[in-house]
Amino acid sequence: MIDDFARVIDKGVVLKRLLIARYIPVVEQLAIQLKDKNNIRQVYTTWDKSRTKEYEGRKLVGFSMEQIFDVVADVADYKNFLPFCKKSDVIVKKDDFLKANLVIGFPPLNESYVSHVTMIYPQLVKAECKDGKLFNHLNTLWIFTPGLKNNPQTCVIDFSLSFEFKSWLHSHLSNLVFNEIVRQMENAFIDEARRRYGKPCIKTVRLEG
Fold first, then answer.
1. What is the mean pLDDT of the chain?
2. For the whole model, what pTM was predicted?
3. What is the structure's pLDDT at 57?
4. Element containing residue 19 per DSSP (H, E)
5. Which of 158, 154, 160, 95 is nearest to 127 (CA)?
6. Does the domain spanning 53-206 belong to CATH 3.40.50.2000?
7. Where are the domains of the chain?
């Protein structure tokens, strides 16, 4: 089992340096604990408490609401700039709704699911996982509001993420890299806005509350 993890990590996938230091000790510890059948229930109970992961963040950025909305709503292009997204095919598209087949991949997971995306231009993008085998739920919400007064080229991004793996093993492993995954996701959208629209008019500022 450890060899399988090492082979996946050794393919040059994202988070290689982070995962190679952390996954193997976790798997080794799990293997030791499961040798004693009396520990199985204890291991499950302990890990099951943290299966749902949630995040909320707020940032002031140097791009307009319309620009950031267009980046986040461009689901078809996720595979080209969003970490861990290996495939993003839009299968239904309307003015305020789309449905897409997504494939995410980061060690040791590689799973497809259907995302239902609701959009209110240029204020909101909400995505919900449907028909997935990997998650009990996966929901993201982006809300865009005006930024600095008298500067329409700024906006405030409120981003929230909530997910729960069906597998308690995947849940525990995700705890090790959750913060890094969220950080890379947030940065990817800002970086893509910079690529499309040029240098932001102000530096990104993380806001409280």
1. 79
2. 0.74
3. 95
4. helix 16-35
5. 160
6. no
7. 1-34, 53-206
Q: Which position has the token pair 């008019």? A: 201
User: How large is the C-alpha radius of gyration of the chain?
Assistant: 19
Furthest C-alpha separation in the chain: 65
CA angle 149, 153, 157 (to 5 degrees): 80
C-alpha to C-alpha distance for 193 and 62, rounded to whole angstroms: 10
Amino acid residing at 177: V
pLDDT in tens, 33-47: 444 444 434 434 444
Over residues 131-149, the mean pLDDT reads 90
First to last CA, the chain: 43
Residue 99 buriedness (CB in 10 A; 0-12 / 13-18 / 19+)? middle
Q: Residue for token digits 């997504």?
A: 102
Residues 119 and 97: beta-carbon distance below 8 Å:
yes
Question: What are the E-state strand segments in the chain?
Answer: 52-61, 85-93, 97-106, 109-120, 124-130, 135-146, 155-165, 205-207
Question: For residue 15, is pLDDT > 70?
Answer: no
**Token reading at 127:** 């995505």
Span 61-116, pLDDT tens digits: 999 999 999 999 999 999 999 988 999 999 999 999 999 999 987 655 678 899 99
Q: Measured between alpha carbons, how far is residue 16 from residues 6, 13, 71 in Å?
A: 10, 6, 27
CA 195, distance to chain mean position in Å, is 20
Distance CA 93, CA 186 (A): 24
DSSP 201: S
